[in-house]
Design goal:
single chain; alpha+beta; Archaeosine Trna-guanine Transglycosylase, Chain: A, domain 4; Alpha-Beta Plaits; 3 domains; 10-stranded mixed β-sheet
Length: 322
């Protein structure tokens, strides 16, 4: 554990027992499937649900879902969540998205008219799912952070759109057509980024199939270890608290975190903030809500510091000491 300007160490002598728990980097494939995720490059054709079902069958797991539905014709990054990681689906869904799309304009649209129409589709807009959408229809307000023309060849545009989660790009193209007094057709759609997860890190279904074959048929897990990531990597950027083994056991059973169980804490967290409560091995125990300010914790002799709201560690990972 490293100390920094934003980190307060409360117990520099705390240690962890090697026979309990497991550092994320040391987990087996089976352990990663109990709480891990894969970034898949969805091809055009199958639905997101179908891809998740195929992956579930190939991996031989019962609990595997996806975060962020893509319509069948769309391609790009689709997060698959396995085991306890499925509890973080809502978090994955919240991240802003970036799309690359190819659209066909109605005839005789000059650059000035096009620029003006696109400007009206930036910022906070109403976004209604098209009838082709894979989700339930309801009116939403969504933020369009940017809508840029990357290239133009007469009526064909290559566009890049950065937007809030839950935005329907097909609806944007329909509304662009209304502003241009003509039909705009969405020809291709690709999700290039979902939250912090880029298409550059995504793998194809073929690559997933090959990695599973090497693991299951030849006892070669290296390829799977590269693509099946620990649940902890979904929580990067959340302020952390590191706790002792005994406290990990208590929290995994739903108990609140008391100050004697803390090894170190980000001191700038405030009451009400969300925190990732971690073991000394770097395992996520739970997500919790601060009951006090982080700067007050070093002066506490006892009392509640945080309360768990989403437990991710199996309750028998560490022995009971309470």
């Amino acid at each position: 554990m490293l100390s920094s300007d934003n980190w307060t160490v409360l117990d520099k002598d705390a240690t962890t027992e090697a026979k309990y728990g497991c550092a994320p980097a040391d987990r087996t494939i089976e352990q990663l499937l109990e709480g891990g995720w894969i970034l898949l490059d969805k091809p055009s054709g199958p639905s997101s649900h179908q891809l998740a079902a195929w992956a579930r069958e190939m991996l031989g797991v019962e609990k595997l879902g996806h975060g962020g539905t893509l319509d069948p014709f769309a391609t790009g990054g689709l997060v698959l969540l396995s085991g306890s990681a499925t509890r973080l689906t809502g978090r994955v869904l919240k991240g802003d998205k970036m799309y690359i799309c190819v659209i066909r304009l109605p005839s005789d649209v000059n650059d000035e008219a096009l620029s003006g129409a696109i400007s009206n589709l930036k910022g906070r807009i109403h976004n209604v799912p098209p009838k082709e959408s894979a989700v339930k229809v309801q009116v939403r307000q969504r933020s369009i952070n940017s809508f840029d023309i990357v290239d133009r060849d007469d009526r064909i545009l290559l566009c890049k759109i950065d937007c809030e989660a839950g935005t329907y790009v097909r609806t944007l193209t329909r509304d662009l057509g209304l502003l241009l007094d003509g039909e705009v057709e969405l020809l291709e759609l690709r999700r290039g980024r979902s939250g912090p997860y880029s298409e550059d890190d995504a793998i194809t279904m073929h690559q997933l199939s090959d990695a599973i074959h090497l693991w299951k048929q030849h006892d070669q897990p290296a390829a799977m270890k590269k693509i099946l990531l620990p649940v902890e990597s979904l929580l990067e950027g959340i302020p952390q608290i590191t706790i002792k083994d005994g406290a990990a056991s208590a929290l995994s059973h739903g108990a609140p975190l008391a100050s004697p169980g803390i090894v170190g804490i980000a001191h700038d967290v405030m009451r009400g903030d969300e925190v990732a409560i971690m073991s000394l091995k770097g395992e996520i125990v739970c997500l919790g809500t601060m009951s006090v300010n982080g700067s007050d914790v070093p002066n506490m002799n006892g009392g509640e510091v945080a309360r768990p709201n989403l437990v991710l560690m199996p309750p028998e990972t560490y022995p009971k000491r309470w």
